[in-house]
Structure formats: C-alpha cells, structure tokens
Design a protein that fits this description.
This protein is α/β, with parallel strands linked by helices. It has helices at about 15-25, 30-40, 45-50, 65-80, 90-105, 120-135, 150-160, 200-215, 230-240, 245-260, 265-275, 285-300, 305-315, 315-350, 355, 375-385, 410-415, 440-455, 475-480, and strands spanning about 1-5, 5-10, 85-90, 110-115, 140-145, 165, 180-185, 360-365, 390-395, 395-405, 425, 430-435, 465, 470, 500-510, 515-520, 525-530, 545-560, 560-575. Among the domains are: about 60-225, inorganic pyrophosphatase (n-terminal core), CATH 3.90.1640.30; about 350-460, Diaminopimelate Epimerase, Chain A, domain 1 (Roll); about 465-575, OB fold (Dihydrolipoamide Acetyltransferase, E2P). Helix 1 (about 15-25) crosses helix 2 (about 30-40) and helix 8 (about 200-215) packs antiparallel against helix 9 (about 230-240).
Length: about 575
C-alpha cells in the first residue's frame, strides 16, 4: 500500500462477497464486516462467538489433565481442616491469582494464606517458601502463576511431607515437577482448549472445578459461591499479563471488566480513587493496562508483591487506603528509577553502535534495578522491532528480562543456550533468566548467532495492518458505538485502524512538546486528529492543502459536555 516512517502499511483483505454475507447475517455496518474479513474470520460461527461473548461458552475446567486429582486433594484438605499455602508470583497476574484462590478457599472454610516471595534469586525464593510452610504447619502448597520450572525446589517440598499442586501457564522448560497435580494449559499432554490462559485464569478454573465438585457432593449449596464475583481479579491478571484477548480470554476479560466496574473489594475501590478512575463511567482494558497494572506491578518491582495481595484482600477501609497510597508512592519511585535507567541505557547504546547493529539488542549493567528492566525491554522491542535482552547485575549474578517480536519465540533460543544459564522461564514472547556475570559475554555471542540464523528478515512489528478503507462521511457516532462490539481491545484484538485519503486544512500544532494536533478534511468534512509522539514530523506539514494518506482510529472526544469525533493518527504519508 504505502510506507510511513519505515513502517509498511498492509491493505485490508478484499473479499466483497464474504463481507456482504457477514452484513446480511448479523445486520452490522459494512465497515465492521470488513474488519472481520481483514482479521481472518472465515466462519459465521466464529464471528458470532467473537461478537456476542457468553459465559456459558467457557470451557469445562475438568478438561485439564490432573484437575480431578487437584480437586480431590483440596476436598481432603477441607475435610481434615488442613493449612494451605498459596504461593504466588510477584507480578499482577500472580497477585490476582493468589488473592482469588485465597479468598475462595477461605469462603468455603479452608485455612488458606498467601505467600509471595521477596526480591531474591529464584532458588532461594522457593526454599524460603518451604521454610515458611514448615513453620506454619502447612500440609498443602498450591503455586499460582509459577512452579512449572521449579522441579528441584518442589521436590524439596514433597520430601518434607508437604503436598504440592502446581497451577501455572508458563512454558515448561525443564523436567515437569513431580507433585500431586500440575494444572498448566501448555503441558504437552494437556487437553484444555485454551493454551493462552494466564495464571489468574488457571486459578479461576481451579475454583470453578472445586465449586462444581463441592456442589455435586453437597459440601456447599448450589448458590453458595458466586463465581462471577471473582472475574474482576481474572480480568486484571489477564489484561496485565498481555494475554491474547480472543476466545476464552475474551470472555473472561469482557465479563471481568463489568465485574471490575461493580467490584465490592475495598482495596480496588481505593486503588480506583488513587488512579483517578470512576467505575461508573466504565473501566476499559486500557485503564487496566495503563493505570491499575503499573501501580500493582510497582509494589512487586520496588518493594514486596505480598502488599498487592493484601490490598486485594483488604477488608478495612483504612488499611486499603494506606496500601493504595503506598502503591502510588512506589509507582512514582518506579517512574523515577525508570527514567534514570532509560537515560543510562540510551547513553550506552550511543557509545556502542554494535548494540543496535546486532539482530538482537543485548545490554547489561550493574547500575540497574532488576524490577524495572522488563518495562524497558518491552519498550525497546516495540521501538526497534527487535528481540531485546536487558540484564541487571547484582553481586555477580545477572537477572535478565527478554521481549521479542511475534515471528521469533524466545524459549527455543534459551533452551539451545541453557548451558550458560542458572535458570530461565516464561513465555515465548516474554521471558526471564538468571545468569552468572562471568557467562554473560559467551551467552550474548551465542544468543545473537542463534537469532541471526533463525529470525525472519521481515517481521510484523514493522507492519501496520489497515482494517478498512473509509470515507470521513462514514464516521458517525452510530458507527463508533457499534465498534464497541470489538471491545475489549488488547493483544491479538487491537483497536481497528482505518485508511483514508485526505487533505490538510492548515498546519498542525505541537502539543505537550511531543505530539501533533492535526486538522484534516476529506470530501468537505474537517476533523481534528492527534498524532502521539510525532512532533518531529511537523516539518513535513508546513504547507496548507497537503494531500495525506492517513492511518487512524476514530474516537469520541468529550470536552465540556460536548462530544465530537477525533482521529487518533497512527501514521501518515504526504505527497512530498
């Protein structure tokens, strides 16, 4: 189609007959039908399931291998009044999974308490957890959002007489833990249809299965548990962990956001206040990703993730407010550290051109905070469309955070070079690792060689997919309201991007130092647009009446109780 700032624009898929069939079947706007065509929907059944999500379409939790064993063991813990530890990871997914499971188990009468490790090496985290479990006379440990790569450590638990149920969603990388039950949608022998559940999603499946079994065996009444009330936590974990918002995850996020808007959790209500979120006006996936998740994550990155679980489980308004305010302070501190690290990283890249010349960005420093490098790693990957590894070194050990482009999964590369690593784990597209400082240079050389041999020459990260061609006259409030059928937006379900050929009414203004406010018209209709981060392209737009190719997402702008349609400019190309 065209190029803008070295980004290729991919045109909409052209299939008029299929588009018309979709319009006739669902009585939707032709532009919505075109989006579905472009995004590869090939059956009316799949389109119906996408547009009209239903809770009844959630999969049977007993499709998990080992689910019956996990439920049976928890039934015994319930009957024998055992003490249970819920061992969680320290990110939002881990916090929400831990809070969800602890709250549910307590509600049915199980003595359950959360345990989230402090900031230390992976092995000592598990060993410290074992010591805490032994001290508290725990007889059953359930891991959430972690455990699948901790076979050796979990063996220590079982040797000490403590049963372990692993619930996780990360890719297995070594030997599967020898424990009582392993619930993970990524196990090779797993029959569960949704491979992309998050840790919170797997925890929800466990409480769903327990509820079904306990009702069936008359341990609890049929109306005793309201499973929908836990979906606010599932949505938080699912969106924060950047899970694909399609299929079952889309159902969980859709209903979870509604549950979040009506949540009775005091901790979340206070967090809304701190974030400036009014649940009565609605809560979007963007609110979760940009406001709630960073604050919850900050406590795990800067202090202790256990405080995040405390907030989610808080029953006292004063305690909840105190924790919410503490999260806000830690988020401010995280932003300060992130700014300093970003400046240092930019300096290192400028001083060593070889870093950017390689097919994979690898930078290590002993001046970085290990809790913040995932943010910068993700930012570099998005900015440069390259796999990125940042390593924070402390006391001779490096903690690395990896992010990548869709065409290059990380785990095969990590497995191929495991001899250099202390440990590694995660997903194909977001992973972590630990490494001795002395091995960083050899690992870097081997990893870059692997990437050179295996990464495609062109990646979709340098591609802007246009969903539909539109005229400005087609952009009305009715169309924008109908686009809500595609929400919630997120991974694998981005906001629609439209294409139009327009003309600049008059030169743009620079706003907030880095953005362009544009004035464009097509067919006599003028609209305002905002191009975030494109102030450096103002020189291209000095003249009036410049013809433009525009890639944009239409949005409703509400100002002083007046609504207008504004364009979120995703890219533009001039006739210069």
């Amino acid at each position: 189609m065209t190029r803008s700032n070295d980004v290729e624009w991919s045109p909409p898929k052209d299939d008029p007959e299929w588009r018309q069939k979709i319009v006739e079947e669902f009585h939707i706007h032709p532009i919505l039908a075109q989006i579905l065509v472009t995004r590869g929907f090939t059956s009316l059944k799949d389109i119906h399931a996408f547009l009209y999500v239903k809770l009844r379409d959630l999969h049977d939790p007993f499709l998990f291998v080992d689910m019956e064993a996990a439920v049976s063991r928890l039934a015994r813990a319930w009957e024998d009044k055992e003490r249970v530890m819920v061992y969680g990871d320290t990110d939002v997914d881990g916090m929400t999974a831990a809070a969800l499971l602890v709250e549910f188990l307590r509600s049915i009468g199980v003595d359950a308490n959360p345990y989230l490790p402090g900031r230390s090496t992976r092995q000592s985290e598990m060993i410290e957890g074992l010591k805490a479990a032994q001290k508290a006379d725990v007889t059953l440990v359930i891991t959430v959002d972690c455990g699948i790569t901790a076979a050796e450590e979990i063996e220590r638990f079982t040797e000490s007489g403590i049963d372990v149920i692993v619930t996780d969603h990360h890719e297995p990388t070594h030997k599967i833990p020898n424990c009582l039950a392993t619930l993970n949608p990524k196990l090779i022998d797993n029959a569960y249809p949704n491979r992309e559940l998050t840790g919170a999603g797997v925890a929800f499946k466990l409480i769903h299965a327990i509820t079904v079994e306990f009702v069936k065996t008359k341990k609890i009444a049929e109306d005793f548990v309201d499973l929908e009330s836990y979906l606010d936590l599932v949505a938080l974990g699912t969106i924060a962990d950047m899970a694909p918002l399609v299929g079952e995850n889309r159902i969980l996020a859709h209903y979870g956001l509604k549950s979040l808007e009506a949540t009775k959790r005091i901790g979340l209500q206070k967090l809304f206040e701190v974030c400036g979120i009014n649940p009565k006006s609605g809560i979007t996936a963007f609110d979760v990703a940009s406001k709630l998740a960073p604050r919850l994550n900050s406590i795990g990155r800067i202090d202790e993730g256990s405080k995040g679980v405390e907030l989610l489980l808080a029953s006292s308004e004063a305690v909840a407010l105190g924790l919410a305010e503490e999260l806000e302070l830690h988020n401010i501190e995280r932003q300060r550290i992130e700014k300093l690290m970003s400046e240092h990283l930019d300096q290192m890249i400028q001083e060593d051109p070889a870093i950017m010349a390689a097919p994979m960005i690898v930078v290590a420093s002993d001046k970085w905070h290990p809790g913040v490098i995932p943010i910068l790693s993700a930012r570099l990957t998005k900015q440069y469309a390259k796999p990125t590894l940042l390593i924070a070194i402390e006391n001779g050990v490096g903690k690395g955070s990896l992010r990548t482009v869709p065409e290059f999964p990380l785990l095969p590369m990590l497995k191929a070079n495991a001899k250099y690593l202390i440990d590694f784990g995660g997903h194909d597209f977001a992973a972590g690792m630990t490494i001795q400082q002395a091995d960083i240079q050899d690992f870097t050389k081997a990893a870059i060689e692997y990437v050179e041999k295996n990464i495609p020459k062109e990646t979709s990260s340098s591609m802007l997919q246009i969903d539909a061609n539109v005229s400005f006259y087609e952009l009305d409030f009715e169309l924008l309201e109908s686009l809500d059928l595609f929400k919630p937006y997120g991974q694998e379900n981005p906001m629609p991007i439209f294409f139009a050929q327009a003309e600049q009414s008059w030169p743009p203004k620079v706003v907030s130092s880095n953005h362009l406010k544009m004035y464009v018209q097509e067919g006599g209709r003028m609209l305002e647009g905002i191009a975030f981060g494109m102030a450096d392209r103002r020189e291209e737009l000095k003249r009036k009446n410049i013809k433009l190719d525009l890639a944009f997402t239409p949005q409703v702008n509400r100002f002083l109780n007046k609504s207008s349609i504004q364009l979120l400019i995703r890219g533009f190309q001039t006739d210069n």
